[in-house]
Amino acid sequence: MNLRYLKCSLCGTEYSPNNVTYVCPKHGDNGLLDVIYDYDKINARTSPADISRSEEFSIRRYWDLLPIEKHASLPQLRVGWTPLYRSPRLGKQLAIGELFLKDDGLNPTGSFKDRASAVVVAKAKDLGVRVITTASSGNAGAALAGLSASAQMPAVVFVPSTAPEAKVAQLLIYGAHVFLVKGTYDEAFDLCLAASKQYGWYSRNTGYNPYTTEGKKTASLEICEQLARSGESRDKWIAPDRIFVSVGDGNIITGIWKGLRDLMGLGWIDKIPKLMGVQAEGSAACYNAWKAGTETIKPVDAHTIADSISVGLPRDGTRAVRAVRETGGAFVTVSDDEILDAMRQLAREEAIFAEPAGATGYAGLVRAMSSGLVQGDEQIVVVITGNGLKDVPSAIRAAGNAQLIEPRLESVPRI
Ligand SMILES: Cc1ncc(COP(=O)(O)O)c(C=O)c1O
Ligand SMILES: [Zn+2]
Q: pLDDT 10s per residue in the chain (415 long)?
């Protein structure tokens, strides 16, 4: 393993992973830890060209950049290496020269969260823990349930009782122990943390567990490698100009930033893209902090159709705001109608069926173009973070209902 130490994102104190499991002891639940690697060691073992020859079409191809001890710890389920589609039609509509869509809804449980859950389950295996737990708005839990089933490890998942039925069905069919919390995601998060402390379960809670970002960073490793492949460059990878991603807790955007910083540290890319965080208007705590020029996140009363990003108190908000500020990007907010419109556009123009939070990054790109925030000559990647089948009622809301018809031919032309 090429991990050197864990570093508090607030005070910079360094810890050995043998001594600290979750957060900085001085800062408690706010002291999220960054995972620091030995870049010289990684460069001595591997290179972009080596990885490009790998036949592992999953996050496993980035083994040397993962915080895992034993190969056997990583569940067999195939996570990552999702397609990066060129999108000339939507690009033309928006007057963007080069637009790419990374469809992470094609992960095994249908969302980006499989990346984090795979790495955390592997960590749990490395550590020899017996039970793993998480709070979730739905997808992180579904991902943990699936990856735990793959690793045959018991999982306990706390989700708000309002989570879409399909996500709850995923939890149940994979055999997780499911608690439907009569409250918000934020309340489920706190309950799950308390239960994990009480019963000694290993917590995968987003951000609180330092390895969730390490799973999520694999998306940016893939983006830069895939852009290089499309341009036939193998020795160096290619960073796009901008990446758009939807933001709830802020852990995906933090993970994407981390992957880019690792690649810069290794000398495998030449620049860090501007990161564009997209939040729903009704759940915009990170946007508010960014706009106010602070890293302190004030909770909001969250309401949006995009259940996955309906978060009152983003747990990784400080690093998310930093990711946007330090890369020279921006936060954008979008309405629920803009999200529904993005779902229709993605499905009809590019045949990508996204859940509301999955389409929110694209809605943010549309908003950023119309407000002149972004120039059309940039190379832009939008991450689609979740599959549309996870929330069928929202898809019907976006698409409208089908026509009912009598089983007679003369009814067809009438309709
Ligand atoms: C589909 C989807 N998109 C985006 C997000 C936002 O990720 P984060 O909460 O890490 O900001 C989530 C989180 O649940 C999600 O499930
Ligand atoms: Zn600290």
A: 899 999 999 999 999 999 999 999 999 989 999 999 999 999 999 999 999 999 999 999 999 999 999 999 999 999 999 999 999 999 999 999 999 999 999 999 999 999 999 999 999 999 999 999 999 999 999 999 999 999 999 999 999 999 999 999 999 999 999 999 999 998 999 999 999 999 999 999 998 999 999 999 999 999 999 999 888 777 899 999 999 999 999 999 999 999 999 999 999 999 999 999 999 999 999 999 999 999 999 999 999 999 999 999 999 999 999 999 999 999 999 999 999 999 999 999 999 999 999 999 999 999 999 999 999 999 999 999 999 999 999 999 999 999 999 999 999 988 7
Q: Which-ligand-closest: CA of 10?
A: 2
Residue 145 CA to ligand 2 centre (angstroms): 31
Q: String of b and e for 319-348 (b: at least 16 CB within 10 Å)?
A: bbbbbbbebebbbbbbebebbbbbbebbbe
Choice from 308, 332, 346, 362 to test ligand 1 binding pocket (greatest atom count within 8 A of CB): 308
Q: State in Å, rounded, how far the first CA of the chain is from the last one.
A: 64
Whether ligand 1 lies within 6 angstroms of the CB of 358 is answered as: yes
Ligand minimally distant from the alpha carbon of residue 384: 1
DSSP 354: B
Find out whether 169 and 240 touch, Cβ atoms under 8 Å: no
